[in-house]
Design a protein that fits this description.
Two copies of one chain form a homodimer. The first copy, chain A, has two domains: about 10-90, Arc Repressor Mutant, subunit A (Orthogonal Bundle), CATH 1.10.10; about 90-205, SCP2 sterol-binding domain (Nonspecific Lipid-transfer Protein, Chain A). Chain A is about 40% helix and about 15% strand. The first copy, chain A, has helices spanning about 10-20, 25-30, 40-45, 50-65, 85-90, 90-105, 120-125, 170-180, 185-190, 200-205; strands at about 65-70, 80-85, 130-135, 140-145, 155, 165-170, 195. Chain A binds a DNA duplex through helix 3 and helix 4.
DNA sequence: CGGCATCCGTGACGATACTG
DNA sequence: CAGTATCGTCACGGATGCCG
C-alpha cells in the first residue's frame, strides 16, 4: 500500500498520473483489458514485476476504483482481478501511448518478451466496424471485441462463440502492422493476412 | 543519466513507457508544450521536483530525441529546452491522460499548486477552429495555438501578435470547464466567459 | 544568479525465500 | 495458488556547494 505520493498539482493530467503514473500500473491495466485475470496469470504475463510490487499495485488499483477482486464460483474457486468501468476508460490512454510508441518498437530485441495478446491494442485501433474477431498467430490465439464499449476489450484464447471475422497471420506481419510499416489493408492485399467471415470488420478489410 | 531501465516487452505501449514512464517526464513535456523554457522556469513550474531529477530527465529526453537544448542569442543568452517534433507528438498522450483525469480533479486541495497555463490543455481540447487565442485569468494570461500542428501548442503570457479570439474568465469557471462540469458553450451563454474577436474559434463559441 | 553536481536520508523497487 | 516477509539496491526528494 503506497502512502499516495501525489504531484499535488491542480491539473487533470497530473491527477491521472497520481493514479496510474507508478511503474507497472498501466501495463497491469493493459493485461486486465483482456478480462478477469488471476494473480499468477498477471505475474506470468508481466515478466520482471516482483510479487510484492504486483500485489501492492493491485491493492492501490482496488482502493482507487480501477479494479476489483472477485472470487470465482466453484469449481476452480480462485480470486480474479477485473477492471471497473472506470478502469476500462483508460483504454484511450493506452491507445495514445501505443500509437506514439509505434515508432520506437523496431525489431524485436533478444531480451524482449512477447505475448500474443499484446498485439490486440494496435489491431483494435486499426480495425473498423463491430463484432467479435478472432486473431490467430503461431504464438497464440486471441480475440477482439471491436466496437464494444462495455466488458473486456479483448481476451486470450479463441473467441467465445462464433466470431464475425477471423484473421490468420504470422508474427512478422503482425509486428510490421503494429509498427505502422504496413497498413492492415495492404497486408490483406499482399496475402499476408488471411481473412474469413462476413462481419463488418471482415468486409471493411477486404474492401 | 539513467541506465535506461526498460520493461523489455515487445509492445509499443511498453516502449512508450520506457521513454516517458519515469516520474516527472510527462509533466516536463506538458511544460515544454508551452514552448522553449529555461531550466529555472521548469523548476519553478514543477514544484516538488528536485534539481538533480530535473537535470537528469532533461538529459534523458535529449538523448531520446524528445527535447533539445539551445542557447538563446544574446542579449539574455541563456540555455533553453525545447521539444522536438517527436516530443510534440506526445500531445495526444497528455490529452488522453487529462481527459481521463478530469473526473479526479475535484475541488482544489490546499496543497495543490496551480499555474494558469495548466488549463491550456483542457481548453485546447474543447476549442474548435483555428487561430491564436488569448486566455485571461486573474492568475495569469496565456495563449493557445488552436489547430496548429507545428511549434508550441500554447504559451505563457499574452498572445504574440493580434489574437483571433480572446477569452476572459475566472478561475472557478475555468476549473469547472476543465472538470467537465460545464461545457464551454454553456459557460459562454451564462456570461461566465467573455469572448471577443472574430476568428473561427470565437464564432464557434458564440454559435 | 542561473545551471547544475554532490551528498544524504528515505522510500520504492527487484529478487528470493517462505507461508496459509 | 496467492500472496507476505526479508533484504540489498537504486531512485527520489531536499539541501547545499560549486562554477560560469
Amino acid at each position: 500500500m503506497s502512502p499516495r505520493r501525489s504531484y499535488d498539482q491542480y491539473c487533470s493530467a497530473a491527477r491521472a498520473l497520481d493514479l496510474v503514473g507508478d511503474r507497472w500500473t498501466l501495463l497491469i491495466v493493459r493485461e486486465l483489458l483482456a478480462g478477469p485475470r488471476r494473480y499468477t496469470d498477471l505475474h506470468a504475463d508481466l515478466p520482471g514485476v516482483s510479487t510484492d510490487v504486483l500485489a501492492s499495485r493491485l491493492k492501490d488499483m482496488e482502493r482507487d476504483g480501477l479494479a476489483t477482486r472477485r472470487r470465482l464460483p466453484p469449481p476452480g474457486a480462485a480470486y480474479v482481478y477485473e477492471l471497473t468501468s472506470r478502469g476500462r476508460e483508460l483504454l484511450p490512454v493506452l491507445q495514445a501511448l501505443g500509437t506514439w510508441g509505434q515508432a520506437e518498437l523496431g525489431e524485436r530485441r533478444p531480451t524482449d518478451a512477447v505475448r500474443a495478446h499484446w498485439f490486440a491494442l494496435p489491431l483494435l485501433r486499426l480495425l473498423d466496424g463491430d463484432g467479435l474477431v478472432e486473431v490467430r498467430l503461431e504464438e497464440g490465439v486471441f480475440h477482439l471485441h471491436v466496437g464494444d464499449r462495455e466488458g473486456p476489450v479483448y481476451g486470450d484464447g479463441p473467441a467465445p462463440g462464433e466470431p464475425d471475422a477471423r484473421l490468420t497471420l504470422d508474427s512478422g506481419t503482425c509486428a510490421a502492422v503494429s509498427r505502422g510499416e504496413t497498413s492492415l489493408a495492404q497486408a490483406v492485399r499482399d496475402g499476408r493476412v488471411e481473412v474469413s467471415g462476413d462481419g463488418t470488420v471482415a468486409k471493411a478489410l477486404r474492401a
